[in-house]
Known about the structure:
- The complex is a heterodimer of chains A (268) and B (221).
- Chain A is α/β, with parallel strands linked by helices and 268 residues long.
- Chain A is built from 10 helices and 12 strands.
- Chain A has a 5-stranded mixed beta sheet with strand order 4-1-5-12-6. Chain A has a 5-stranded mixed beta sheet with strand order 9-8-10-7-11, with helices on both faces. A two-stranded antiparallel sheet of chain A has the order 2-3.
- The longest helix of chain A has 16 residues, at 6-21.
- In chain A, 44% of the residues are buried.
- Chain B is mainly alpha-helical and 221 residues long.
- At the A-B interface, helix 4, strand 9 and helix 7 of A face helix 4 and helix 9 of B.
Amino acid sequence: xxxxxxIPTLLATALLVIPAQADxxxxxxxxxxxxCAVVLDFKPMGSRDAQNxxxxxxxxxxxxxxxxxxxxxxxxxxxxxxxxPALMSGRVDLGVASTxxxxxxxxxxxxxxxxxxxxxxxxxxxxxxxxxxxxLKGKTVGxxxxxxxxxxxxxxxxxxxxxxxxxxxxxxxxxxxxxQGQIDATVSPATSVQATIQSGKFPGITLxxxxxxxxxxxxxxxxxxxxxLINFLNLFINQQVRTGRYAxxxxxxxxGEAPNLLVPGVYR
Amino acid sequence: xxxxxxxxxxxxxxxxxxxxxxxxTLGIALQSMAIGLVLAVVLTLCRRSGNWFAAxxxxxxxxxxxxxxxxxxIYMAHFGLGAFGIHLSPFTALLSGIAFNNxxxxxxxxxxxxxxxxxxxxxxxxxxxxxxxxxxxxxxLPQMLRIAFLPTTNQMVWAILMTSLGVTxxxxxxxxxxxxxxxxxxxxxxxxxxxxxxxxxxxxxxVTLAARLVAWRLFIY
Lengths: 268, 221
């Protein structure tokens, strides 16, 4: 190394070291952009338009969050199973990715208060004679690997002791398999099934009533030790509801009345 | 930037489940190799048969199997055939996808092995009164399999690793499927994937070593 390059190198090293001691919010503001993990095959939460541009509830939500931080939003597409690797490897700052706030996951990542809630319904292809959740017994069912509904559905199939559960890597593959008749039914968020039926891309898919699973509350997630960021996210979600933006976004992407995010009888 | 603290105890607690998955993985690989070997011999015979139709089918098979990704072949076995109303279960789709791939590669191995067997042997056998079929069965085939043995173990390793593509068609019983599911449930991605990588490594290493031992015992000249 030439001796002349030592001082710039030291300076560069110092510059690299100092921001690392700041917290994540500082990092985000300093970088001027907020990188959100968003699932883009999960209508109406995330999807791509004809020009391949991301759109949907989660995309708008990330844009709002970026605006609140005074930075530009960058949507990073992450299929369901890749949300956490994306966060851990530093490809994204946080996730706006319809992530169910299970306790098992909360051991690994930090969860905000719920920002959305899903009600689960049964979707079928009209071929297997399925009319309700109970008639799923003994049938072949599927769901996107690792999602709330996949975990609940697999548990139910095991409890029944008959039938088969298949996890697919994406929501689109589940609807494709259902449309082709590879699986007889799936359990999905009502919003997703409605959007899929409306899209007409997967012919034959119909609704077959509600699934008796608990309401699936979903959270924003970030690194577990980033308390500052998680506090900010909680306040942001609170403000989204308070200002009516949550109801507005819900109306825009789903329609009807937005689900209540409060669990009665308990603090968060 | 890597911000993650490893917690091995939770991941190691799932080791029995992962080993069950490893057994399924090895089972699929072995079955796919058995099917692939038989098909490869058939493909080789077709290509040597002089029947242009059989040769064309065999050549097409080898071309597609060797020049398209294994992922594509497995995905097509599930969703591609599914579009025509032919429904293979994730297990069958994975097995047939890998067997298809194996057959293509092994047929090419066999073609290479055949060129290493002097044509004069066939002529010598025929001049001793053996029929064409007998010559292939008794003279050419044993030597071909012997020459192709070590390249074939390569394909076995490849088959083991290809089973991990089953997750794309809803396979959840093999090592990759089990790992993916454990990961999705707990978000302990790096521990589970590291353990899975070690298991894959050990399986393939054991297979290669076993093949070397077999070759050492079997092929003493």
